[in-house]
Specification:
The protein contains two helices and no strands. The chain has 85 residues and is mostly helical. Helix 1 runs antiparallel to helix 2. The protein starts with a helix and ends with a helix.
Length: 85
Amino acid sequence: MDAASAAKDRVDRALALLERRLLDLKSRAAAAGRAPDDDLFAPQPSSETDRARIHELESAGRDAAEVLARAADAIRASLAEQEAR
């Protein structure tokens, strides 16, 4: 597997992980009898439960951003290596 394919696989895995985390958070909200709110620009949370949910979403977003940044770096390095040949 070449470096570009390996980087693409890492990006795909990171996106799949993010999607699983978001679905998990939505299912927990549904189990608690609340409809999940996907609007990141919604008014400030009115309860501790809402604040905890927002914290979890933000954490998942930061994790995904970190993984995607590493994948982007790997893709850039692979492209630079291919151009140098």
